[in-house]
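PT: before anyone asks, these are the final sequences, not the draft ones from last week. 223 residues across everything. Please model them as a single complex and drop the result in this thread when it's through.
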Amino acid sequence: EADIYQTPRYLVIGTGKKITLECSQTMGHDKMYWYQQDPGMELHLIHYSYGVNSTEKGDLSSESTVSRIRTEHFPLTLESARPSHTSQYLCASSDLGMGYTFGSGTRLTVV
Amino acid sequence: QKEVEQDPGPLSVPEGAIVSLNCTYSNSAFQYFMWYRQYSRKGPELLMYTYSSGNKEDGRFTAQVDKSSKYISLFIRDSQPSDSATYLCAIGRGSTLGRLYFGRGTQLTVWP
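LR: through. Structure below.
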């Protein structure tokens, strides 16, 4: 079944830790995105990729990095987590001219 | 100026009501208009997709685009408690679409 998977679903971690949020899709989509979502606020684009070895920063200033070594995989890394990083992180993918397919999200809490 | 504006609500209606959700956008270059539905603790799912102007109907859902007013709407007929969710509008442009701009989402509750 074609889908997009995010792990972990929930993560509580201490300040200063390095974390990687995983995102994988089985649809062969070239375009992938990371969004940050806080309650009652717009989805903010953090990073996006239009293909392997192609990544760009989005609108939201972020201390995170991404990589796109394989089409299906688009992990997001925070080198040093801070309480201000507490949020929900959504990964999405899309095909030519079509809407996004979202994962279920990772809810991150930094204590 | 934000690319798209959406009233966050919340909106609370009785079962069977007609619901109207709306967004406005700022740039006439946008050509793709979508509505996503997001249940609690889930990712958004695509509900309606419209290219350019006009209406699109899918069961109890109707999406309308008025490009002259830069106004998009989602109507839900005969609303059900299972429609209770947050509804996000999204807009995009370009020949291959690419990134989308999302509204804040409107939280809808349909009570029995």
